[in-house]
Hints:
Elements: H1 2-6, E1 11-18, E2 24-30, E3 47-54, E4 66-76, E5 86-88, H2 102-113, H3 119-126, H4 130-146, E6 154-159, E7 166-169, E8 176-180, E9 185-189, E10 196-200, H5 205-214, H6 217-222, E11 225-227, H7 233-241, E12 246-247, H8 248-266, E13 272-277, H9 279-282, H10 286-296, E14 301-306, H11 309-317, E15 323-328, H12 333-336, E16 340-355, H13 359-362, E17 367-368, E18 376-379, H14 385-396, E19 402-406, H15 410-418, E20 424-427, E21 438-441, E22 443-444, E23 449-457, H16 464-478
Parallel strand pairs: 2-4, 6-11, 11-12, 13-14, 13-15, 17-22, 18-19
Antiparallel strand pairs: 1-2, 3-4, 4-5, 6-9, 7-8, 9-10, 15-23, 16-20, 16-21, 16-23
Helix pairs in contact: 2-3, 2-4, 3-4, 5-7, 10-16
Amino acid sequence: MATRLFALDGVQVAEVDAEAGGGRTVWVVTADPGAAACPGCGTVSARVKEHVTTRPADLRHGQDPIAVRWVKRRWECREPSCPRQTFTESVAAVPPRCRVTARLRGHAAALVADGGRTVAQAARECGLSWPVVHTAFAGHADPVLEQPPALVAHLGIDEHRRGRPRWRIDEDSGEYVLLADRRPTCFFDSSGDQGLLGQVEGRTADDAAYWLAQAAASWRDAVQVVAIDMCSIYASAVRRMLPAARLARALMARIGTAEQELGEISGRRHGRLRFGSFPTALATFVPAALARFQRHHADVSLTVIDDHLQHLLPRLDAGELDLAIIYEHQTLPEVSSRQYDRVHLLDDTFRAVLPRGHRLARSGHDVSLAELADQTWVGGGPASTWFRIVRHTCRAAGFDPRVALTTDDNVAVQAFAAAGLGVAVIPGLAVAHALPQVEVRSIRGLAPVRRIWAARPRDPFCPPAARAMIDTLQLMAKQTAAPRGPERPG
Length: 490
């Protein structure tokens, strides 16, 4: 009867002792005949070498803790060809070299998987260590994770902090340096019963896109709506991997924009303009345009965002910006393919930046790209829009630029050139306020040109504030000296 109540397969209860302080000690012996078979050769042994007692952790029974004492036999293997000389009994419920019963491991894993406990909470409840419970949970979860998730109509994506960030002190500077900030990106079934679908380390757009790319095409096609927060990090991953899905954040932004426009039309709200621009435009003709706009439209709430092109585009798409200054080139299809209402402002021809004392600077003449072919270049990295635009024109001139120093900061580019570290070809707007230690030259013949636009999300109704800002930008852009080159913008 005691063996049936204890119900641990492969063992038999020999004795139960009630402890003075509460709890019970259950003494068990092996009841599985197969435990006498050598795990090395399978030969059933008939010679016992010694008896040993182990203490496997097991489930509680009722209110009292249970201490298990398993008296096992260590057998001798008499098979001459077997490398094992001795072995100790084991059963499926308590595998070899395991100090926790399988049912206790399963219970701990279920507490985490289905009971809402953290690994630490489950470890305390079961009297186990954190690594043991985590390993049990991983073994429980792996078969589930290996199965493809069911189709999801409404997908949620968000970051989740797991643990505290880890820091170290830099011995040279004495400052704290971040070693690890565990914030995985998590994916949820927002409308079904699957809950957490998976997670991936990191919280960038590429991290999210990597996880989505692992799903089957049929699964991605079934996603109709993706819910994310107002941050634009995940929006680009959704547009890349789930082009047919609608962004719930974008829908909310459009509703907010519609409410604002209705309020402006009815006179119940003041005008609002959320404006974005890339840095070189903000440093040249945009400040004068903003000042003129505010003088004539003081009642409009104006917000200005300084960001790079690759971040302005998702913000326009998501409805976070009402108007933005962007640029196009034939090497940037991700810009020209977007459906915006655009107004042309100016063409920005790139110019050469040379160290003072450089032989081409001393000549006092314009330079050609071919004359810079054998020079060391300074500029953006291979993934930057600068590199794509400049390389396109350089290849048309018969060479690839040899970029040794990479930076996206045009002031740093000029500083590198001023130090004699290389030459550069950067937008004309970027050298409108050139450093005094460099020589700026127009480019003779082929020269890169980017076309600059004022862009807004496509909408038949253009709010008065956006229309007024576009007119002001056009006026200020005409007053900006933007040298032209013979290459037509793409």
